[in-house]
Amino acid sequence: MIVTTDDLFKVAYGKFAVGAYNINNMEQAIGLFEGNVNAQAPFIVQISKGARKYANPQMLEAIIRAAGDLYPEAIFAVHLDHGDEETCYDCIDSGFYSSVMIDASHEPFDENIAITRRVVERAHAKGISVEAELGKLGGVEEDIQVDEKHASLTDPDEAKEFVERTGCDSLAVAIGTSHGAYKFSGGQGLHFDRMTAIQEQLPGFPLVMHGSSSVPREEVQRINAAGGAIDPSAKGVDANQFAGAVPLGVTKVNIDTDGRLVWTRVHREFFRDHPEQFDFRKPGTLFVPAYADFIVDKSRKLLSYGTLEQVRAALA
Ligand code: G3H
Ligand code: 13P
Ligand code: ZN
């Protein structure tokens, strides 16, 4: 059942975080739904601009609708990840999305506000909620001076002003994480002090944590043992820290890279061990349950495991 992102956030705030997972194909979609039904967890299906370009928006919509039919127990929202203004309007007008993210965080503060405000007006007119971003992820690297490190984190006073002036419904904040391959150059640590300060300015307001993959060492080692060449010092967020972020307002946690690592590990190992094979359905069949197990594990860390009936009751 597709629900609004707002409804999920209302139930989740302060109690658990909703896992938001990017999908690009049918196998990821089935594993995602299977895993969350097994975990009895609500979730968010995220579609990036890159996914729309790769798989076609109509195809992704059809896959998600079909997965919803195949797993009628599932409770989920559909979200545009890292949209620009034009893509946000496209998704708002499509009528399929529960929420969109406008990412104008690379723009100066006032321009970010102006763009976000325009998207909020269009989205709210159709009952769609908006995630915006303030602060800079990815600028946080171990070899950068501490002052510079903090300079890229979200400023709590600015966050309050930003939310008031834009009317956005949730805010992606820079609190020590970074996206995808960037992680491969160093370690991450969550800035709980910064989360606390942001929550003080925005009590009860849902915060979103991007760049939340863990990049497990053993996953990287297995990929490399099967022919990969990923930096072995790769390191992401310690998923055990999610539980500490939840009471501080982190209500949505974005995970993409870790799912790609599962895909890569399963497929590399399969073709290493069966070099004579070329039927991609065989590794695909192994990937789906592996991805589902991965989702169950994440939902435990997010504290969303076993919350589905509570969510269903709250939505009734
Ligand atoms: O934060 C970005 C997501 O991991 C989506 O990645 O733009 O390569 O689809 P993508
Ligand atoms: P990761 O690259 O850490 O998985 O982050 C994904 C993300 O933030 C999607 O918006
Ligand atoms: Zn992101």
What secondary-structure arrangement, pairings included, does this model have?
Elements: H1 5-12, E1 18-22, H2 26-39, E2 43-48, H3 49-55, H4 57-70, E3 76-83, H5 85-94, E4 99-102, H6 109-124, E5 129-134, H7 146-151, H8 156-166, E6 170-173, H9 192-201, E7 207-209, H10 217-225, H11 242-245, E8 250-255, H12 257-273, H13 281-302, H14 308-315
Parallel strand pairs: 1-2, 1-8, 2-3, 3-4, 4-5, 5-6, 6-7, 7-8
Helix pairs in contact: 1-14, 2-4, 2-13, 3-4, 5-6, 8-9, 10-12, 12-13
Glyceraldehyde-3-phosphate binds at residues 22, 48, 50-51, 81-82, 179-180, 256.
Structural class: alpha/beta
β content, as a range? Answer: 5-15%
By DSSP, the count of extended strands is 8
| Main sheet attributes: strand count, strand direction, barrel closure | 8 strands, parallel, barrel
CATH C-level category: Alpha Beta
The CATH topology turns out to be: TIM Barrel
